[in-house]
Amino acid sequence: MNTLTHTSRQQPISSLAGWLTAPVDNSPLILFRVVFGLLIAVEGFGAILTGWVRRVFVEPQFTFNFIGLEFLQVFVGETMYLVYGLLGISGLMVMLGFRYRLAIVTYATLWSISYLLQKTSYNNHYYLLMLLCWVMVLMPAHRYFSLDVRQNFVRKSLTCPRWCTVVFVVQLFIVYTFASLAKIYPDWLAGRPISLWFAGKADFWLVGALLQKDWLQTMVIYGGIAFDGLIIPALLWRKTRPYAFAIGLFFHGFNSAVFHIGIFPYLAIALCVFFFPPEQVRRLFFKRKAKVTSELVSQTNYSLPTWALVLGILYFSWQVYLPLRHHLYPGNVFWTEEGHRLSWRMMLRTKSGSVRFMVENKATGETWWEEPRDHLTAKQSRKVATHPDMIWQFSQYLEKVYQERGYDDVAIYAHGEASLNGHPRDPLVDSSVDLTSVPWQPFRHAEWIYPDRVLNQNSDP
C-alpha cells in the first residue's frame, strides 16, 4: 500500500495531525538511512582524498562565509581535515545505525559549519544536504536494521508515523518545482548557458561531439524544465511511477557523467524510495522483516504536538518564501545575486568578469590598486568578480588588512565588469562608493549594485 495513502485504524483521518501520525511501514525510511549514510560518508572522506578540503579551506587566507557568521573563520585551515574526517566517520555510523542520533546530529552540525563557512564553491546541492541532515535528526531511522537495535540501545519498530515520509515528499516538491520555474527565463530558453557549458566539453569522453548538437541542447533545455516540473507528480501517481523512476535514473546519470556534481544525483535517486509502496520496499530489500499487519497498526499510536505541526508549516512556508524573495529586489537576480542563494536556481547561468580595488588613504589622499589574486585563490578571484556580496566582503577584508598595517582610515572602491551568459560586459557595482562605509543589509537592495545593467536577454553578444 502506498506510503501516502495508507490509513490507520487507530486514528481517524479527521485532522491533519491524525493523518500525519498514522503508522506506516518504515522500510523506505530504513533503506534511505543506509544509502544516505553511505553517501554522506563518501562526501566526507572524498572531500579530503580529492584535495577539495585543501583547495577550499586550507590554501585560502580566508573564506567567504555567509555574511554575519564571521566567527566561523576559526575553522579555516587544517582544522577542516578533522571536520571532514569526523563527517566521514559520522556518515558510516548513520549507515550502520550505530549511535545514530549522535552521529546524525554531529554530521548535521559540522556540515552546516562547512556550508556556511564558504561561498566560493556554493551550490544548491550542499544546501539540500544540510536540510536533509537536519530532517534526518528528527527521524526514527535507526529503529530497524541497525546496530542500535542489535545492541538494545533502542527498541525495534516496524513502523513510523506517516509524517516521516511526507516531509521528504514535500521538500522534494518544493526543490524541483522551483528549479523548473527558475529555468523559464529568456537566456535558458535561448540555450545560452547550455551552449557555453557544452562548448567546453567538446573533447569530453565519447559524447563530446554529441553535446554540440543543437537538437541535443534543445532536449536538455526543455527536458530540464519538464523533468523538474513533472517528476514529483509522476512519482506520486502509481501508473506513471515506474516510467518516472526510469527517466530519473537516466536524467541523474546524465548529470553525474557530464557535470560531475558529486553525490547529488545518487542522493536524488535514493530519495525516490519515499514514493514507492513500503510493502514493495520491504519485499525487495528487507525480506526477513515482518509484514506490517492491520493488527499491528491498530496497536500503534503516534502523537504530533500542535507546536510541532505549526513549526513544520512555518518551515515549509519559509522554504517557499526563499525562492520567491528575489521579487522584493529590483533588477535581474542572476545579475545582482540578491535572493539567488537558497532558492533552487541550480545550474542556470554562467558569469565571468574582472575586478580590482582602489585603496585610498583618507589622511593623505594617496591611492593605489589591490588585485584580488594577490590575496585569494584563483577560484575565489573569479567568484569575487561576479558576486556583489563577495566584492563587499573582500572590501571589508582589505580594510582589516590595512588597519593591521597601521592605516587607521582607508576607503576602498571596486572597479570591474561582468558578463552574464555571454552577454557584453557591464559594470556590476558603483565604483564611486566606498564599500567600507556602507553596511550590508540582507533584506534590502544595495543601492551600489547596478540592478539593470544587463543588456536585453535576447540580444546577441
Summarize the structure.
By secondary structure, the chain is an alpha+beta fold.
What does this structure look like?
The chain is an alpha+beta fold and 461 residues long. It folds into two domains: 16-326, no CATH class; 350-461, no CATH class. The protein is built from 19 helices and six strands. Helix 3 (52-58) crosses helix 4 and helix 5 (100-117) packs antiparallel against helix 6. The longest helix has 23 residues, at 27-49. The protein is globular, with a radius of gyration of 25 Å. The termini are far apart. Residues 1-13 and 454-461 have low confidence and may be disordered.
Please render the helix and strand layout as text.
Elements: H1 16-20, E1 23-25, H2 27-49, H3 52-58, H4 79-96, H5 100-117, H6 124-137, H7 147-150, E2 159-161, H8 163-182, H9 186-189, H10 192-199, H11 214-236, H12 241-259, H13 264-271, H14 278-285, H15 294-298, H16 306-324, H17 333-336, E3 351-361, E4 367-370, H18 378-384, H19 388-404, E5 410-420, E6 426-427
Antiparallel strand pairs: 1-2, 3-4, 3-5, 5-6
Helix and strand element order: HEHHHHHHEHHHHHHHHHHEEHHEE
The tally of strands reads 6
The number of domains is: 2
The percentage of residues in β strands lies in: 5-15%
Number of helices: 19
What are its keywords?
461 residues, alpha+beta, 2 domains, four-stranded antiparallel sheet, two-stranded antiparallel sheet, disordered C terminus
